[in-house]
Amino acid sequence: MAYNIAVIGGDGIGPEVVDAAITVLDKLPVEFNYTYAEAGDECAEKTGVPLPDETIEIAKNADAVLFGAAGETAAAVIVRLRQELETFVNLRPVKSLQPEKYGNIDFMIVRENTEDLYIGEEEVTEDGAVAYKRITKNASEKIADYAFKYAQDTNRSKVTAVHKANVLKVTDGLFKDSFYKVAENYPEIETNDFYVDATAMYLITNPLDFEVIVTTNLYGDILSDEGAGLVGGLGMIPSANIGDENGLFEPVHGSAPDIAGQGIADPAATILSACMMLDYLGESEHARHIEEVLINVIQEGVHVTLDLGGEYSTKQMAEYIAEQL
Ligand code: ATP
């Protein structure tokens, strides 16, 4: 069976890290047909639009989408793609691949992906500007249910809801209430909830207390970068956007214009995103194999990029991992 993969490299280091992931995928005894599509700042300069209709079509028709990064046009590209593909969940695993350095941190952020402030609905008013924070019962219950099912499937015993319901009583209050309503269907799973500001601290003081975090769109975005900081940086955190019909897989980091074009970007986050894509496609054995090799390579610390203590380029690191498979 061959899988049709839409590949959107995008801007900055996006195309570099996506190429690296494809180098690794191509070593598997699995057939992939890649369809390359454009999006991002460069695409906007060239075509006048950051996300052409053709790219949306290619993404919708693929079995999965592998995405790199978008720069200044990120809101018009990745936020829109998530909406077009109706990927209601954004999974962001925060896992230490170097336990001797960062401890045994291992939790999953289950981020609601379709509403809240992050969708960027803003408006200029007479005296300033307004951003809409829309929270619905349906999306809140759906994401809570996903988090509990995820906990069940992965043998995790606790789900933590993160919100700011003491101040945003109506919107975040609804999110919190939805969480506890859904929790009734999962009596075997422990629950608790924290305010987002407290969570920002607990992630640093007690990171091992977290197993699954379920939260709204904006808090999920911020906490996952904090999570990256706990386990070695943005080069290490993959993500999966999943809906009923589509899956889009991308590193948590952005286009990193400061290091773009130098061939030094850490490809780990994108290779791990490709592993999440393999899981989604039902090829979990291959996903675990790549992860195992990648972790060994990172722990060995030689055939790796600068941020991981080595001197390898993005391409060299990917080729080395591919050889080890
Ligand atoms: P964008 O606006 O596209 O999000 P950014 O620079 O604001 O770009 P990131 O791309 O997430 O945000 O990068 C933040 C920092 O992390 C930068 O200093 C960048 O060099 C570093 N970084 C991000 N990804 C990687 C990577 N794969 N390897 C090494 N460093 C990275």
Can you characterise this structure?
It is a single chain. This protein folds into two domains: 178 residues, Isopropylmalate Dehydrogenase (3-Layer(aba) Sandwich), CATH 3.40.718; 125 residues, Isopropylmalate Dehydrogenase, CATH 3.40.718. It is 42% helix and 21% strand. The protein has twelve helices and twelve strands. A ten-stranded mixed β-sheet has the order 2-1-3-12-11-4-5-10-8-9, with helices on both faces. It has a two-stranded antiparallel ribbon with strand order 6-7. The model has no long low-confidence stretch (mean pLDDT 97). The structure holds adenosine-5'-triphosphate. Adenosine-5'-triphosphate binds next to loops.
Short description:
The protein is of the alpha/beta class and 325 residues long.
Secondary-structure blueprint:
Elements: E1 2-10, H1 14-25, E2 31-36, H2 41-47, H3 53-61, E3 64-69, H4 74-84, E4 89-95, H5 99-102, E5 106-112, E6 122-125, E7 128-131, H6 137-153, E8 158-163, H7 171-183, E9 190-195, H8 196-205, E10 212-215, H9 217-230, E11 238-242, E12 247-251, H10 268-280, H11 284-300, H12 314-324
Parallel strand pairs: 1-2, 1-3, 3-12, 5-10, 8-9, 8-10
Antiparallel strand pairs: 4-5, 4-11, 6-7, 11-12
Helix pairs in contact: 1-10, 1-12, 6-7, 8-9, 10-11
The run of helices and strands is: EHEHHEHEHEEEHEHEHEHEEHHH
The unique ligands bound to this protein are: adenosine-5'-triphosphate
Tally of contiguous helical segments? 12
Give the name of the CATH superfamily of the largest domain: Isopropylmalate Dehydrogenase
Sheet bearing the most strands, described?
Answer: 10 strands, mixed
Shape: globular
Count of DSSP strands: 12
Poorly predicted runs of 5 or more residues = none
- What is the CATH first-level class name of the largest domain? Alpha Beta
Approximately what portion of the residues adopt beta-strand conformation? 15-25%
Give the count of structural domains: 2
How many angstroms separate the termini?
A: 21 Å
Question: Over all CA atoms, what is the radius of gyration?
Answer: 19 Å
Instruction: Please tell me the overall pLDDT.
Output: 97
Percent helix, as a range, is 40-55%
Here the CATH topology of the largest domain equals: Isopropylmalate Dehydrogenase
Widest sheet: strand order?
2-1-3-12-11-4-5-10-8-9
Structural class: alpha/beta
Q: Per CATH, which architecture of the largest domain?
A: 3-Layer(aba) Sandwich
